[in-house]
Amino acid sequence: MTPIHVVAAIIHHPGWERILLARRPDHLHQGGLWEFPGGKVDAGEGARQALDRELAEELAIQVLRAEPFLEVRHQYPDKAVLLDVWQVWEFAGTPVGNEGQAIRWAELAALPAYSFPAANQPILDALLGR
Fold it and tell me: What gap in Å lies between CA 52 and CA 84, rounded to an integer?
């Protein structure tokens, strides 16, 4: 099964020790769970281009400084995903849930209290030093 290539952003709040989370709409795969914002990489698009486009579409922000963090491959029963995870250190604009999704700034230490898709576990482990 060919994995779906997805970018995911760990968006750091300037001045706070918080990360931006988005809640997946109930009707989508893994709906109702919290995630790191992002989306599918389009054909012919690089990961950084996809990151910039997805965050502009979903959150109305412009990425100013970002760097690759890690790649995660995960096999769900019905699909495979390749998460291209980036850390976003600087952005312009104020994040809003442009697609109707709930968003929330969460403290790093509080991340284990949120329900995430299974593919996000390696990201959480890396962030929390586990």
Answer: 13
pLDDT in tens, 117-127: 989 999 999 99
What CATH number is associated with residue 113? Answer: 3.90.79.10
What is the edge-to-edge ordering of all strands in the sheet holding 4-11?
38-40, 4-11, 80-92, 62-75
- What total of structural domains would you count in the chain? 1
Amino acid identity for residue 19 in this structure = I
Token pair in block for residue 78? 């019905």
- C-alpha torsion angle, residues 52, 9, 72, 53 (rounded to 10): -20
What is the pTM for the complete model shown? 0.91
Dig out the tokens for 88 from the structure: 């976003």
